[in-house]
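// run 5 | inverse folding | seed 20
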């Protein structure tokens, strides 16, 4: 009745975003509904936009129930949970939140390298548990500065990780679909070759059919018992059971993980390992960045409904 477009929000991502959307649109909160199918059927004829993130699946099955949808706006840079090909076919626009989260993600990748290699979290626990006076000096860890860093996926985030690692004197190498002519780093056409020539591997690529499980047993073994893996991409890029095995068998030096195959479930075998740092998918999780992401989500919707160009379309 107020003429504002109806926007279906999959999950409560951030009260700031909900409030912002509520002020501009008729917000339909799917996460609040106990019978989601019934609710979807009741709003099917008015939903013109869907707001989602990495925790919800927006596939053909859902979109088929919503014949009036014009745009899917994701509160994430990764769009692996959205059926982008189907959207394209139906002429549904898709937007994401790139750039604004690049710094935070790259910062966290470096933090994971340092915390894992220097065992910062475990050393902190050593002090808090009162071990220092009883057990003496903490065991030795691994140096990060000056080491060979392999970056898997040299997109916006990968490049930002490289820039930071340059300041640590690291030798930077990368794997990507193609050799980028605009960077001074060494290109490898295979992840295995990259791993063989790296002390540390940071995974920053998008999760696609091509990148699923590319960090497999052979790659982990190439990294070896003094090698370290950091993953800020998606859990599915790594063969997780093989990673757990490599760590249990001390075939890998350590791992710093922000993402997992079956979030929010983290393999319990890893919980007690001092050479592993486990974060709950927080790479973009600062107030500053999440606000900027929220502004992009609602900004894209406003642009769409006022016939202006989208800020960050997924093409
Ligand atoms: C999540 C992310 O979107 O941007 C991405 O692809 O994985 C994160 O920024 C964020 O956790 C909100 O769900």
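// decoded
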């Amino acid at each position: 009745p107020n003429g504002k477009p109806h926007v279906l929000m999959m999950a409560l991502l951030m009260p700031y975003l909900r409030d912002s959307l509520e002020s501009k649109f008729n917000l339909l909160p799917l996460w609040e509904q106990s019978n989601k199918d019934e609710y979807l059927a009741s709003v099917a004829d008015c939903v013109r936009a869907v707001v989602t993130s990495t925790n919800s699946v927006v596939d053909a099955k859902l979109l088929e129930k919503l014949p009036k949808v014009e745009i899917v706006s994701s509160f994430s840079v990764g769009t692996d949970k959205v059926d982008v090909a189907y959207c394209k076919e139906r002429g549904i626009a898709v937007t994401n939140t790139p750039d604004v989260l690049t710094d935070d993600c790259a910062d966290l990748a470096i933090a994971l390298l340092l915390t894992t290699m220097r065992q910062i979290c475990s050393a902190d626990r050593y002090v808090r548990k009162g071990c220092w006076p009883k057990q003496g000096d903490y065991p030795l860890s691994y140096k990060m500065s000056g080491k060979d860093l392999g970056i898997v996926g040299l997109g916006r985030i990968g490049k930002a990780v490289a820039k930071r690692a340059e300041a640590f004197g690291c030798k930077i190498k990368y794997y990507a679909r193609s050799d980028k002519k605009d960077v001074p780093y060494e290109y490898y056409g295979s992840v295995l070759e990259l791993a063989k020539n790296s002390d540390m591997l940071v995974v920053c690529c998008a999760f696609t059919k091509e990148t699923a499980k590319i960090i497999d047993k052979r790659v982990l073994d190439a990294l070896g018992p003094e090698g370290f893996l950091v993953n800020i991409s998606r859990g599915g890029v790594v063969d997780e059971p093989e990673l757990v095995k490599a760590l249990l068998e001390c075939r890998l030096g350590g791992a710093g993980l922000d993402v997992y195959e079956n979030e929010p479930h983290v393999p319990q075998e890893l919980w007690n390992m001092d050479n592993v740092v486990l974060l709950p998918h927080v790479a973009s999780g600062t107030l500053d960045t999440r606000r900027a992401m929220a502004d992009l989500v609602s900004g894209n919707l406003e642009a769409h409904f006022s016939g202006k160009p989208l800020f960050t379309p997924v093409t």
